[in-house]
Amino acid sequence: MHVAHIASEVFPFSRSGGLGDVVGALPAVQAAQGSEVTVVSPWYASLGGETPGHLWAGDLPELGGALGLGDAPHVWVGEVRRGGVRYLFIGLSPFSRPGLYHDDDVWRYCAFGQAVLPVLRRLGTVPDVVHGHDWQAGLVVAHAQLAGLATVFSVHNLQYQGKWNFAEGSRWTGLPDWALGPDGLEKDGDVNLMKAGLTFADRVTTVSPTYAQEITTPQYGEGLEDLLGGLARQGRLSGILNGLDQERWDPRTDPDITPYGDLAGKAAATAALRAEFGLDSAPVLATVSRLAGQKGMDLLIEALPALTPDWNVVVLGGGDPLLEAALTGWAQHPRVAFAQGMNEALAHRIYAGADAFAMPSRFEPCGLSQMIAMRYGTLPVVRETGGLVDTVPHDVGFRFAEAEPQALAAACTETLAAYRQPGDWAGRVERAMRLDFSWDGPARHYLALYRSLR
User: Fold this and answer.
1) In what order do the strands lie in the sheet with 36-42?
2) In terms of Cα–Cα distance, which of 304, 302, 286 is closest to 356?
3) What pLDDT tens digit does each residue of the chain (454 aa) get?
4) Is 15 one of the annotated binding-site residues?
5) Burial of 37 (0-12, 13-18, 19+ CB in 10 A)
6) What are the helix and strand counts (H, E) for the chain?
7) Which residues lie across from 10 on neighbouring strands?
8) 233 CB contacts (<8 Å, ≥6 apart)?
9) Dihedrals phi, psi of 392, to nearest 5 degrees
């Protein structure tokens, strides 16, 4: 079985969030299980990790002139092989700017989407299955399906869809006219690359079973619920829970903390976090998150008056300037600490040192933070949505139903009551640290899915 994963980011070469983590971990496990695995991603100007070796360069007339790149744009390809996985990075002029994402991303990923298959052909690579991830790979899936290849399309976050006005965007896709209408990638007068992936893929997956159900409803379907409901009825939509890279996130070997594997080591990590932020002896409630409405960070901020009498609160993240400003103001409070931006080493210390971890998400396709937190013995306080339902057992963490600050505060009160019962709390922590979130099971589910397409 040869599978080609197509994604806009892959850890450790490029990453902005959970998508990069998934595409960084799943292919390596699939390779270890015996599949031949290729990952294809753009060659960004700011590409990290190992420097790819130049594999091929040349003109690609298949891209045509509609993209404004000339009649035969120059393309270069780099390669890295590690962990049994072959990583291919496609270089195109639209990706020569620093950073991953920009305002003209629909145009950029239309160029990438048309380049992938011709590049693979030039390299003599013909996968059994093309597995695209999120809207940036939707056009690749459409072209692969039209070329007769088996295709899987994974939705990591339906909110982001890759939309552009139809008159301009349709010329960028390289698809035949019949594929551009309402039965193809057009949605509400726009080109929609997420819809392209959903429409043309043999099978569509999401990153948790609960999210697969949620997105067929108007509340979570982002305008695509009718299409997704049809896929579900046809048996073409399913949810496969994400795994966690348990080597990267292992408190027993983590180089960013004093490693531990028991309650005593956990207590030492909490003491170290309190000392780092100058916090008192109250329990520590933390979060590491994008500051965005989806993540419910406004709910956490609104709940702070109810939380701070009993909790220290530590927040690491960046995003919405209004939420950043609010947290900066709250950081004057002796029980609130805010570290703006993202800091990998600090994130590890927070996961290890916090007592509880808040995830008041309005929706959460899967979520990795709650898995990481439990692996480090930090008990999650989560809203009942998406992958949070599928991963947080009642005898470990704490859940609340409504996306309201009062509901979050009430769940934290329940959490505090358990914290004040040392036997109950220790049992929850020990169960959390024993949970298995490895990629082995999900990788086998994907393999079974691929084989069903052959």
Assistant:
1) 53-59, 74-82, 85-91, 36-42, 2-6, 129-133, 150-155, 203-206, 237-239
2) 286
3) 999 999 999 999 999 888 999 999 999 999 999 999 999 999 999 999 999 999 999 999 999 788 999 889 999 999 999 999 999 999 999 999 999 999 999 999 999 999 999 999 999 999 999 999 999 999 999 999 999 999 999 999 999 999 999 999 999 999 999 999 999 999 999 999 999 999 999 999 999 999 999 999 999 999 999 999 999 999 999 999 999 988 889 999 999 999 999 999 999 999 999 999 999 999 999 999 999 999 999 999 999 999 999 999 999 999 999 999 999 999 999 999 999 998 999 999 999 999 999 999 999 999 999 999 999 999 999 999 999 999 999 999 999 999 999 999 999 999 999 999 999 999 999 999 999 999 999 999 999 999 999 6
4) yes
5) buried
6) 16, 18
7) 14
8) none
9) -105, 100
Burial of 53 (0-12, 13-18, 19+ CB in 10 A): exposed
Gap between the Cα atoms of 344 and 326, Å rounded: 23
Triad 207, 213, 214: Cα angle to 5°: 90
Contacts of 295 (CB under 8 A, 6+ apart): 289, 359, 360, 361, 362
Least Cα distance to 243 among 378, 368, 363, 357 occurs for 368
Residues constituting the chain: 454
Closest CA to 385 of 226, 222, 227, 220: 220
Tell me the domains of the chain and their CATH numbers: 2-243+440-453 (3.40.50.2000), 263-434 (3.40.50.2000)
Count of alpha carbons within 13 angstroms of residue 284, beta-carbon side: 31
Residue 17: Cβ within 10 Å count: 15
What tokens were used for 423?
């036997």
User: Of 162, 179, 244, nearest to 207 (Cα)?
Assistant: 244
Q: Virtual CA dihedral for 362, 366, 370, 376, nearest 10 degrees?
A: -170
d(CA 200, CA 185): 9
Contact between residue 72 and residue 81 where contact means Cβ atoms under 8 Å apart:
no
**What is the three-state SS of 215-230?**
CCCCCCCCCCHHHHHH
**Is 120 strand, coil or helix?**
helix
Is the pTM of the predicted complex or chain greater than 0.90?
Answer: yes
Q: Which 8-state DSSP code applies to residue 261? A: S
> Can you give 360-371 as a three-state secondary structure string?
CCCCCCCCCHHH
